Amino acid sequence: MDTTAPNGRCPFASAVPVPCRPREPRQVQIGRKLLVVAAVQHLGSQPERTCIGCRKKGPRSQLLRLVAGAGGSSAVVVDERRRMAGRGAWLHPSEKCLALAVKRRAFGRALNGAAETADVERRILAGTPAADTPVTAATTVQPESGSEN
């Protein structure tokens, strides 16, 4: 039994295309009529965003959110927490996508004239520390309380 509509979308879902998998059909009574309805189970709904460099879609968790700097500056800032106000653009954290975005002048179009990408370049080229790398504790400059004597 085919559960997709002619346009390839799930016929029981919203306008957003989500792959669906049929479950056991169930019976629903409307008035005196008994209808058999195919139940549909959705396979997750992670938010997807489009990379401004390669133009490929990916889950939001794999992309960096970029916003224009505050105060009308032309700087592009990396929004680490994905909570800054304003229009955002999304970019894969790779040098390849960064180069494509710069070549296509995507920052200026996506962020209304923002062009300074130094912060983004620094973030991508530096990378993020590996998850298994231990973080060393900072040395204290002042002695602990009670050990002044």
Indicate the mean pLDDT: 77
Radius of gyration: 25 Å
Strand content: 15-25%
Q: Helix content range of the residues, please?
A: 10-25%
Oligomer classification: single chain
Number of helices: 3
End-to-end Cα distance, whole Å, is: 82 Å
| Helix/strand order, N-terminal first | EEEEEEEEEHHH
Q: Structural class per helix/strand content?
A: alpha+beta
Which residues form runs of ≥5 with pLDDT under 50? 129-140
According to DSSP, the number of beta strands is 9
Strands of the largest sheet, in order across it? 8-7-9
Overall shape: elongated
Biggest sheet descriptor: 3 strands, antiparallel
Verbal overview:
It is a single chain. With 149 residues, this protein is an alpha+beta fold. The protein is 15% helix and 23% strand. It is built from 3 helices and 9 strands, in the order βββββββββααα. It has helices at residues 95-103, 106-110, 118-126; strands at 20-22, 26-30, 33-37, 40-42, 48-50, 57-59, 64-68, 76-79, 88-91. A hairpin with a 2-residue loop joins strand 2 (26-30) and strand 3.
Summarize the helices and strands and which ones pair or pack.
Elements: E1 20-22, E2 26-30, E3 33-37, E4 40-42, E5 48-50, E6 57-59, E7 64-68, E8 76-79, E9 88-91, H1 95-103, H2 106-110, H3 118-126
Antiparallel strand pairs: 1-4, 2-3, 5-6, 7-8, 7-9
Index terms:
149 residues; alpha+beta; 3-stranded antiparallel sheet; two-stranded antiparallel ribbon; 9 strands; elongated
